[in-house]
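Quick one:
INPUT:
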């Protein structure tokens, strides 16, 4: 397919999440031994975590820190559980054996932003989320932030020159994962791409991505990489495989935040699983070339259209209509 195609957007979403590499570990990044249920509950009690979720042997703990929250413990628990289940819906399983989530209290009814990393010495994923004291259950359940941070744990913590790839994956996968969990509608996923992708493109051009620090290209240029990769995989496999197959394989074969894999090593693992050379060549193209992008043509081919009154409509006779539906797919069993 012609990759000289797509990008742009005007989302008001606040993407200020980052992956912070913790350079403390000298270990191999291998997985920690799974805790028994009893041991896991003991950890939760001792360390003051209010919520513990066991996702097929992967343990996720939540600490809310300060008191005075509007939301109840059950609300927080349900929020974390829904985020875990969103990850499971896309990847098949949660990526790392242990994860600690800590909340930091701010003002108002809002989930502000999050950060994620992996502590090699403690062998655990760490996520921090800044949440307003008055945040309601509805705000928690409609927030994308925690799922975005969890997606970061599914992929290596990459070199700073490649950060756009990690942010692109998190930006692209999060809404699809939450849709598969039933937290957002199918239309909302396309609405977000329609509004978000143009923010990565400047006058029909996507500049070299290597080392980019520019917000639009970091998140939406990276998301464009994912969408193009997804389309190419589905075209070359007659919709039998998609980006999720490559990303799930990377995570399940050890290329998570616990690993020391490079971005290219991870993508090569995905290509091997697909039996296609797609992810690595496209990555190199994004890294070092300036690309012409025609997002209008891309959305036309996908059959995603917006009326003058900003109403989203879908054209099932568009060339990529079937692929469009396949991208959203069904929850993995
Ligand atoms: Zn992020």
């Amino acid at each position: 397919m012609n990759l000289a195609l797509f990008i742009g957007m005007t989302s008001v979403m606040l993407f200020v999440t980052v992956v912070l590499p913790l350079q403390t570990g000298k270990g191999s990044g291998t997985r920690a031994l799974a805790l028994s249920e009893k041991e896991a509950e003991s950890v939760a009690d001792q360390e003051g975590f209010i919520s513990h979720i066991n996702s097929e042997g992967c343990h996720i703990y939540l600490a809310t820190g300060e008191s005075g929250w509007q939301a109840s413990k059950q609300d927080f628990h349900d929020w974390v559980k829904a985020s875990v289940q969103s990850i499971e819906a896309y990847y098949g399983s949660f990526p790392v054996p242990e994860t600690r989530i800590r909340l930091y209290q701010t003002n108002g009814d809002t989930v502000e932003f999050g950060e994620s990393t992996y502590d090699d010495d403690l062998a655990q994923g760490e996520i921090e989320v800044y949440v307003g004291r008055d945040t309601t259950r509805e705000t928690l359940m409609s927030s994308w932030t925690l799922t975005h941070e969890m997606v970061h744990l599914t992929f290596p913590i990459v070199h700073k020159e490649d950060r756009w790839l990690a942010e692109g994956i998190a930006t692209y996968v999060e809404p699809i994962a939450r849709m598969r969990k039933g937290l957002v509608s199918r239309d909302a996923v396309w609405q977000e791409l329609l509004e978000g992708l143009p923010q990565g493109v400047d006058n029909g051009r996507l500049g070299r991505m290597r080392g980019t620090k520019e917000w639009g290209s970091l998140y939406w240029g990276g998301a464009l990489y994912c969408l193009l990769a997804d389309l190419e995989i589905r075209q070359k496999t007659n919709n039998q495989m998609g980006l999720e197959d490559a990303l799930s394989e990377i995570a399940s074969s050890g290329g998570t935040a616990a690993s020391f894999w490079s971005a290219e090593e991870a993508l090569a693992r995905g290509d091997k699983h697909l039996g296609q050379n797609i992810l690595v060549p496209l990555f190199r193209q994004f890294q070092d070339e300036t690309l012409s992008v025609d997002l209008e043509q891309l959305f036309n081919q996908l059959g995603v259209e917006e009326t003058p009154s900003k109403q989203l409509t879908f054209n099932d006779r568009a060339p990529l209509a079937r692929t469009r539906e396949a991208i959203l797919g069904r929850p993995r069993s």
